[in-house]
# Entry
Amino acid sequence: MSAVVKEVKKVTTNTLQKMKAAGEKISMITAYDFSFASIFDAAGIDIILVGDSASNVMAGHVTTLPITLDQMIYHAQSVVRARERSLIVCDIPFGYYQSNSDIALASAIKIMKESGANTVKLEGGEEVLDSVKKIVSAGIPVMGHLGLTPQSINKFGTYVVRATEEQEANKLKRDALLLQEAGCFAVVLEKIPAALAKEVSESLHIPTIGIGAGGDCDGQVLVMHDMLGINTEFKPRFLRQYLNLNEQVTGAVQQYIKDIKSKDFPNENEQY
Ligand code: KIV
# Structure
């Protein structure tokens, strides 16, 4: 008897290209572990991003800077084990691509080899072009990231909206085209004016994925802890919170404590 092989049409970078051409919006969410990634994949999300926001939401750091390449690979391995359909993108963390393109390539190869992710993401425009070209020429798809790039928080000094001034907006438009020419398959646009994101999205043939960049991007991404209401302190204007998991989990755990203290749990049906 032959085994039944489940045929699932996996999302690839080509799928995303076709979605943009057809005007179909692309959905992306972050995940850092097997259990949530399984839920998101089964729910039909197109892209799961193993973001370096893991540094904040998983490890409790204030910025994304401290997370290491090995820690990112650990999270990506867990997410990849859950993958049936979604495309898995893994961030190259701070310090593992900025110094030169050989180091960038080595980091991308390590992520691909050890985690099984499908693609990598890195932040920046012109400054990282050599790295993007080198990684792409090794057969590794690269997603770019422009606008508010959290790995540069010490340069920006603040998480406010980027590219509101003409000079920064012009640089962003140029960078988006350069990333496309260098071979990026998509670009994240974070926290920039919606009109600018629209202009950039229309000027590119590769998809843009927005976060705080308005509805004219080709897709949208949110950090799972923000959209599920696990992290309740972070309430930027662009965030739509779909659940209040923090409140629900708090209620469930308080009830559990109460049931233990009152000797209600376990009852005779919950024991052997
Ligand atoms: O690390 C991350 O979660 C990200 C998204 C905010 C796009 O880069």
About this structure: The pocket of 3-methyl-2-oxobutanoic acid is lined by residues 30, 49, 51-53, 91, 188, 190, 211, 221, 223 (CB under 6 Å). The mean pLDDT is 97.
